[in-house]
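Team,

Forwarding the record for the chain on the shared tracking sheet. I've put the sequence and predicted structure together so nobody has to dig through attachments.
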Amino acid sequence: MPHAPLRLCAEQLLHYSNNVAKIQILNDILASQVAAGEVVERPASVVKELVENSLDAGAKHVTVEIQRGGTALIRVTDDASGMSREDALLSLERHATSKLKSSEQLESISTLGFRGEAVPSIASVARFRMSTREKGAVAGTEIQVEGGNLRDVRDAGVPEGTAIEVKQLFFNVPARRKFLRAETTEFAHVEYQVRLHALAAPEVRFTLIKDGRSVFDLPAAEDWRVRISSLAGHHVAGELMRIPRCEGQGVAVQGYLLPSEYARKGKRQQFIFLNGRPIEDAAITRALRDGFKGGIVDGVNPAVWLWLEIDPTLVDVNVHPAKKEVRFRRPFDVRNLIANAVERALIGDLPVQDNKPVAEKVLEYPAADLPAVSPRAAAAVEQESVELPVSQSSVIAKDFPHRTEQQQDLVTPKGIEMVEQPDFQIIGPLHNRYIVLEGDEGVVLLDPVAARERIVYENLIKAADGEPISSQGLLVPELLELDAVDADMVLRHAEHFSEAGMQVDSFGGSTVQVTSLPAFLNVSDVRGFLLELVDELTETVGSKRGKAVAFETFAAGIARRVGRHELCEVSHAERLLAAMFTCDLPYCTPDGRPTLIHISLNELDRKFGK
């Protein structure tokens, strides 16, 4: 016999809460603040929830105003249906929603919001004011809430629609407020969120205002390409390739993509919308790559704007607190449909796969005149030896057992002395990846990529130690139209770029201007190189190291980008070795990978049974 549901009357609840010490019922305000921990992560989270409510209410114009990155003020105003006083008050109650009336509707959610937690959660951690008026109503309503406590409800002369002000976010939850980042960073996340919604709903006008100044004002558009070019940059408009509408099994997909040379690490250049909802989905990302049929290399993702329409019964949007992720009922059908649609868009225009990104093909680095690097201060080397994931001493011990005491001192360290270059005889290339050398006690393999990394890294570190690096100005400054988060990251670390011989400045909005590069780089595709570097730094900033990127980490990122293009040619080997052995730590890359591997004659004899 099934158990009857547990029902406790008010008197029983009071009795138990007064007499049982371990378990207590949370009051409404505390419960909302707990819910806010999932819903309200940062100012961008507030903007997301409020804009979604505006779109669900039928807004044709949404204005987002931000002060001090959203920490001082967030105001979202719309011209939608508005609310009566009763509905406005109910919207501040937890789990109160007009978008869900029965459990059956959970199987076919068609609105952006539906849980009824966002507004009360936001009001519980801020100074909150809502002004709203229904269509055709004579007067509107204004409600003020402070930290979850209702302060005032009154009639107000306000325009039709709804305006919500959120001031001093997390003022009563200091533990949450201290985790907020710099104002520029928080605003970058807000701008990115508004851009997502503007792409999801091009038929709606979006206005974004920062500290009293307009960032953008996007008129409603019927053509997705107008909205894409307004946000991604007009330089991409002529490159957009249409993904034709494909339908099947309750799913339809269409959109636009860019050719393979625009592919980048990470997925920030992918914009995926499901029934008007911005989402992130690993299966869709794989499907987009599959559609290129090997036309892009591993580690990068194509730039794409993809709109999916799907029967709401075939997808569960209630699997993530922030509703970013979804679960498809038939994921393989969705994946196959997307891959086929992308392939159709590329028919007749598929790039030839040669295991190199397009950016690599046009980057050129001179083999001659490799920069010499003088030894660094002992303290700096000691700091670097601590940071290496694989200690240089272990590399030398394994591959060069005949090292001198002076070489060992380099990694202990007791002082700095130049590492003497061993007497190598160059034999030849191995599968166009390594160079075979003959040493005094066996065979040595040189990795040109790793060697170049070490050389470039120490050259950049030398500049940071007070010896300015030589830079060359670009005849025509390169303008990079980045997304707001990437632009903020670049500008916050402009000093690092400058120390590395690259001058970067803001060119307005999310556009960054690059006017110079290090003299030792001969880069024919400046944009490709810089976008790769931005991707590298974005990953670093997002990692556990990431609140502030030390210059050593920045320099290592540049070195990796330069090193990966080094050619494996015997004609370069002698100069490469000479430059490598002017380095303080020649035997490994900044992240600890070996530049040389030694195979002794004794080991060879043992393998041949001698």
